[in-house]
Amino acid sequence: MNLRLRMRAAWIGRSSLVSATALLLLAAPAAAQDLFRHLDANEDEVLSGKEAALVKPLDADGDGEISRSEFDTAVAEHRRRLDRVDQALFTVRDGNEDGRLSGTELSGYEFTDLNGDKRVPLEEFLAGLRQQRGDLKKLNVDELREEAVRRFKALDQNEDGRLSGTELADGTTFDLNGDRRVPADEFLTAMVLDTVTAVSEGSPPAPVPAPAPAPAPPSAPLTIDSAVTTVVEAVNGKSSTAMYAGFLPELRGLVDEPMLRYTLEHIARSHGKIALPRGKGIESSEVDGTVTASVPVQCARGKLTLRVGLTRGAISSFSFESPQVDQLNDRLFLDLQENSDGVLKRFAEFYSVPCQQMIRSVLAKQGDDAFAMIHPEIQQSIGREAFQGVFDYLLQGVGRDAAITLEAAAVELDANKKGEFLSVTHLVKGSAGTQAVTHKLQFIGLKAHFVGLSSKPFEAAPTTTSAPAGVPAKGWKVVSSVEDGLRFSMPGDPTRSVDEGGHILYRLDTQTPSALYSVHILKFDDNIEGDPKGFFEGLDGSLPDSFQGKIVDTDPANWNGHPGRVTMMNLKDGRVMVRRDILVGKVVYAMQWLTSDTSKGTQKSFGLPFIESFGAPEEKASKPEPEVPPPPR
Questions:
Q1: Using alpha carbons only, what angle is made at residue 258 by residues 254 and 261, rounded to the nearest 5 degrees?
Q2: In Å, what is the CA distance from 216 to each residue of 99, 102, 248, 250, 296?
Q3: What's the predicted TM-score (pTM) here?
């Protein structure tokens, strides 16, 4: 599942993005053939040399020339891509599933409200996007290139010269080859293609729809039999999407996609493949227009009862009943703690969307909209004033031109070591500084609700030598070196050495647990930070041979706007290695933790606190950060 960020950042120019070419007006061509004709200066039906400067990525066969066939194929595919991505974007932003965008759902896309009623259905949203793209036709090539520079820089948060990962959240229409990486020239070409498909002055105006009526019922209503079958097929792995699509709109507002998916996976793990009883019809009853059925399904393991409600041809309720289902919440938090099958990453990426929506509302000084996203009981028990204090602190600490990146997610336990909250942290970097903003979410049924919020300076370091959270305090040391440009924590005093190449090594061996802690400071002649993709691809090729093992997982782990990654390996000798690389200009900071104790508890208590302790050597003075406490229990 791709991370989808709801971002609209200010555009700031970067003149070195693309080289200058001959001036060309794009206002005239209104169709693909016209644009091709304008580009084809020598009229040889082929774009080459300077003629192809704006559309080089369309050279499908790599022969240095773009034929009319290649060009027309690219334009047709771009039209299909725009339709697909624009509709998906609408679905993502329509948080309450009511078939229209309103309130905070419109944040950053107010220009699509063509009739000014502050309610934007799908057709009006699409028309607004087309109209915005139409404005590009008014630009000449130099102006279009400058606009591309501004937009590209705003999206390129790690400044590596390409868009990837979360940077593509609202910009997948620019990914022409579908490789999830968009360099600057591909971005510019996509904007050129936008001019072909857009609406502009002189073109027929896009229709402005009247305020949309309430969503119509599904064109093919479900029966109770087909509804039960849909749920059974979802458990068996066919499609949770089909099940979700069959929900009544009111039910969609009560079910989060990752929670639905996890629930179905948990049932499949617990009971194996399930099936309807053979030779028996589904017995049902109807009360006040709702048809309900209770079905004892056949399971590979254990016993399971499925209950489904149907209202107006859509699923209005469902439940699974078994002893294993009763353990769902405990199992969920255990899997989140261990990130089993990437479940923590999946949840973090999904809930990053509303988290960033709230942050954007705060930065736009729309505190009412942000406060409205908090669970009503928390609003009442804690009050608006407490949250406003956090909002103001965030605004002051970030300033203008903010960029948001997902930094981390974790599980918080209660006094009985039971899972209580999911916390999701984002780095918000602006003109005044960087803040780490953490949202606390609590699961109620199959939906997560905001119940807490905090904001603090990202570089707030501990003022005393102490152990990371969750680790015995005795023996842990904070190593801080201005000369080496870093700070980290270890459970003891490491040795420091420098080799002939000027590379620095901090090293510590411990007996309990048996582990090796090391921090390598590697210095290069080239700007490694400028090509993180190349560095990590090289690392993936060298680590398995160097350590005689297998890479089992990787996760982004940026630091203070610099690219970084955590790599986990299982070595052939039975040891586990966790490594974090952080790229800062020409320097790579590589933190490694190797241990023969492969228990999750040891990794959590000794490995991760070390890996996560990296910071800058100089502490910035700051006032205490405000935090809205979690709800009273």
A1: 100
A2: 9, 18, 11, 13, 33
A3: 0.46
Return the bridge partners of 349, or none.
none
Could you please report the per-residue DSSP string of 462-482?
A: -SS--PPTTS-STT-EEEEET
Residues linked to residue 591 through DSSP beta bridges, in sequence order: 519, 580
Concatenated DSSP letters of 56-92: GGG-TT-SSEEEHHHHHHHHHHHHHHHHHHHHHHHHH
Position 15 in a domain? no
Same domain, 184 and 60: yes
**Residues 398, 433: Cα–Cα separation, whole Å:** 5
Decide: residue 210, CB within 10 A, 0-12 exposed, 13-18 middle, 19+ buried: exposed
Q: Which residues contact 371 (CB under 8 A, 6 or more apart)?
A: 379, 384, 387, 388
Q: For residue 306, which of 255, 267, 262 has the smallest C-alpha distance? A: 267
144 in the same domain as 64: yes
SS3 track for 239-290: CHHHHHHCECHHHHCCECHHHHHHHHHHHHHHHCCEECCCCCCCCEEEECCE
- DSSP string over 470-537: TS-STT-EEEEETTTTEEEEESSPPEEEE-TTS-EEEEEEETTTTEEEEEEEEE-SS-GGG-HHHHHH
At 581-614, the pLDDT tens digits run 999 888 999 999 888 876 766 777 788 888 888 8
Looking up residue 567, the CATH number of its domain turns out to be: 3.40.1000.10
Distance of CA 366 to the CA centre of its chain: 23
DSSP 231: H
What is the number of structural domains in the chain?
4
Q: Are 617 and 461 in contact (CB under 8 A)?
A: no
CB 369 within 8 A of CB 108: no
CA neighbor of 144 nearest in space, from 5, 34, 59, 29: 29
Could you read off the pLDDT of 247-296 as tens digits, one per residue? 888 888 888 888 998 999 999 999 999 998 877 678 889 888 899 999 99
Residue 12 is assigned to a structural domain of this protein: no
Q: What is the pLDDT of residue 24?
A: 28
Both tokens assigned to 490: 């270890």
Task: Give the number of other Cβ atoms within 10 Å of residue 538's Cβ.
Answer: 11
Q: CA dihedral defined by 61, 63, 64, 69, rounded to 10 degrees?
A: -50
Alpha-carbon span 273 to 301, nearest angstrom: 8
Query: Quick check: helix, strand or coil at residue 566?
Result: strand
Rounded Cα gap, residues 333 and 416, in angstroms: 13
User: Torsions phi, psi of 414, nearest 5?
Assistant: -90, -175
Domain assignment of residue 215, yes or no: no
Question: Could you tell me which residues are beta bridge partners of residue 565?
Answer: 556, 581
Name the percent of the chain lying above pLDDT 90.
13
- Residue located via tokens 């780095």: 427
Asked if the peptide bond before residue 513 counts as cis, ω within 30 degrees of 0, the response is: yes
Q: 201, 215, 264: which is closest to 446 by C-alpha? A: 264
- The CA distance from 13 to 3, in Å, is 26
In the chain, the amino acid numbered 132 is Q
Classified as helix, coil or strand, 135 is: helix
Average pLDDT of span 1-17: 21
